[in-house]
Amino acid sequence: MGDQAVPADYKRFIEKKVNKMLRLQQRLDSSYEKADDQTLIEIIVQAKKTLGEKVVVLGHHYQRDEVIQFADKTGDSLALSRYAAEQEKALYVVFCGVEFMAEAADILTNDRQKVILPDLGAGCSMADMADIDSVELAWKELSQITDMDAVIPITYINSSAAIKNFVGRHNGAVCTSSNAASVMRWALGADDKTGSAGPELVREAKKRGRKVFFFPDQHLAINTAWKMGFSPSDNVLYDPETDCGGIERGALADASFILWKGHCSVHQRFTVAQIEYFRNRHENSVVMAHPECSNEVVKEADTVGSTDAIIKAVANAPRGSHIGIATEVHLVNRLAKAHPDLHIECLDPILCPCATMNRIDLPHLAWIMENLTADKVHNQIVVDEIIKEGAKTALEKMLQIV
Ligand code: SF4
User: Fold this and answer.
1) Best substitution site from 64, 98, 157, 290 to test ligand 1's pocket, by max atoms within 8 Å of Cβ?
2) Is 113 helix (H, G, I), strand (E, B) or coil?
């Protein structure tokens, strides 16, 4: 896409986004910082009582226990955003997750609802790895060496609203960790006859000559392509730190997947050595991994799936099973507590919380909630209307596909 095709209001949005990047979480009033946990808990309980149906508190699966106890609903990012949209009486949606989740909620909720992120520092390191300027530049660079009409952009839901908008404007779609394979099959133009995986699907996809440009998590894309039957040589990695992503024209011509060089700082910590160590300690052990882990880890795991899939697999495990899980530690610890008949542990012996999500704590939640009782809204996440439009198109495309 040439410069002339970029709308002026979109450029203004980019400027605003840069300014927003400089915005920092304001220092809390010292009364919240100094208060003990019991006092903060009482403030939140009282505020929830006062606000009643006017507020809904959402807690992502990776959120810390002291915060999640106040969640009216727990879940993954898409489930929580859709839940928020259904709570039409809730004027305030307090999203105890990270920024991209709050943005998705603002896109899906109505104009009256205000989405709030209790700590503006709660970003997602993976989402931040694909900033809109770099993605626009990548698209332009690749258009010098390949036909971009055959390139379908797909973004993992763990991305900014600006990236979702970019994808929507280029006829692509959003995906989640549970539906990435279906969305990729759609993008590659595979029809129902080829099945969901295997050599025929790969052959047909290659015959059509389409390519998926996947943002921002290389591992989810690699694992999904591998599960569909593609080989590592069908992938090229786009490194935004390198000229033209470090991609050669020849390698690009043969590739079906262009992968943005992004990763999750939590899930990339898991290793095959941790799995081996766990299996050596327990007979009949079961290993479960999230698809944001590396392909080596995923290949070794017995079960691979989204947080919801892991929660279901644990619920269905035979009593007494030893289960080692490669995902965020707060979720793993909660599963262990909820299933005392199972032996559940996180495969990473050094605790691996989602550090940014865990910036949301009792003082920030108490500050937000108490101010809401006086109709004072702090930390509202507002997605610009022009960004909303494209992002919604990409989200709706996903919902049509799956
Ligand atoms: S766990 Fe990883 S992908 Fe999920 S919010 Fe945290 S940094 Fe982002």
Assistant:
1) 98
2) coil
